[in-house]
Design brief:
The structure is a homodimer. By secondary structure, chain A is mainly β. Chain A is about 10% helix and about 35% strand. Chain A is globular, with a radius of gyration of 19 Å.
Chain lengths: ~300, ~300
Amino acid sequence: MSRPVVSYSDGHVYAFDPDMTPIHTAADGESLTVKTADSLEGAVQTESDLLEEIPEEVNAATGPIAVEGAEPGDVLAVEIEAVRLREDQGRVVTAPGFGLLQNHEEIEHPSTRITPVGDRHILFGDIRLPVEPVIGTIGVATAKETIATLIPHDHGGNLDTTDMTAGTTAYFPVFQEGAMLAMGDAKATMADGEMCGTGAEIGVEIDLTVSVVTDSPVDLRRPLVQTGEAVKTIASAETLEAACKQATEDLSRLLAQEHEMSLTDAYMLSSLTGGLQISQVVDPLVTVRCGVPGEHLPNPLKA
Amino acid sequence: MSRPVVSYSDGHVYAFDPDMTPIHTAADGESLTVKTADSLEGAVQTESDLLEEIPEEVNAATGPIAVEGAEPGDVLAVEIEAVRLREDQGRVVTAPGFGLLQNHEEIEHPSTRITPVGDRHILFGDIRLPVEPVIGTIGVATAKETIATLIPHDHGGNLDTTDMTAGTTAYFPVFQEGAMLAMGDAKATMADGEMCGTGAEIGVEIDLTVSVVTDSPVDLRRPLVQTGEAVKTIASAETLEAACKQATEDLSRLLAQEHEMSLTDAYMLSSLTGGLQISQVVDPLVTVRCGVPGEHLPNPLKA
């Protein structure tokens, strides 16, 4: 097998920006394996390792990977085939000034719990939780800004979206030549919301296939996921309300195009099936998604 | 069969308040059928029936039903056994000043779509959507305030939560003698978020069993649902962020009690499985829920 492997040790970034230098160049349609470090890069290995603050550099994203032929205006499709844990334990942490209940007087900040990995499960104390990996940070070079890997936005980044896992194809707008894909910040499992600020953070290896959609009739401005069951727009904003509005408008536009209906009808249809889901409520911008069962958007990027 | 039937025509309310007069008194453990009108009480029957504004009285809730023995401090358990459609069509509407995208210039307010009911599906144009009924408004007499049936709060009310359907047991804090249960505003199907402001609004009949939990070790302050798969706290607030905080804290307290762990550990556990879900983003207060798979809270009201 000649599947290329791109590792954290080959190169990683702490920000997405317009001018990224690739550590690997993939052919359009190439299948490769990406190895990532946990979001804290090994700094937390026991329950005595406490995080007094979120490090300035966090969520190291392995890459970037240039994809041949990707030009601004194209769409990058990332088919996620498998996500395997690379460590025998993960970690869940709270840290001062971080997390949904950061000001709750009965909740300790910092605190750390180590989550040993068993056979298809992890342990939180004596509670078994199934391994359901999530790629927390995944994105491409931005149009103009430099955006730290802690932050989600239209380029992807710290989306912390549980759908970002095996079986999903993620679509990103291409803002720069080569797209410049990078990813990291995986979890062995994570709740929608990621309320305490982390899931069970862990290094993983990801099998994926990258391809360029050059003739998308959809003006894709933000990430989109196609899971085995649903198609979902993803939007990040300062408030959940603003993110909900953007994700709903984006989904309604896709439905209107697919079904040749008015935006009003598409909006009403969006209120009947699927709907809004919370991705995360703890990053500098918060993230939601808005979806419908896949049968209503069978091929979201084709007219 | 002597199952009592309580109908919209027997009595209905447009507000939950502390001093409600029952139209039926149920024994503790009684099984009954409740018939509701659609949220617009028949005013919208064709696509020419447009809603220029939300009526002052909306979401008529059939009831209230007193439950014998329910006293302030108890918990009312409502086991929802079946929800059947009573009409051969539902309706989806937008109205000026209402809905998530009410200020979007390309979306028409008002607009109406009629959704005919078929065999286990409804039609939106030529799109088939499975019938998945939701009881939009369900609640009990309040502690002090008068709260219109358009508004959700700690007594329940307009929760617009897709889990409020057959197979779920809903728990409400009892604030007044007899609890005074009332419900209406059902939908044939509804997306999480109810973005345009409605689902497919329709009259239904609901089979349910009411019972009083007198010795709850949990100080239940807001509604809670136990579905076939999960246990979820429900919280309503002025912003989604505030509702997320409340629902997460409430769930963390239940987990801490069940597993005899610190609130910090329970909060970290809540970030690993299940998580936050949006109920609705369109009512005067918005509603979210926070859940875990049922195995982690097998009996949420027993110590």
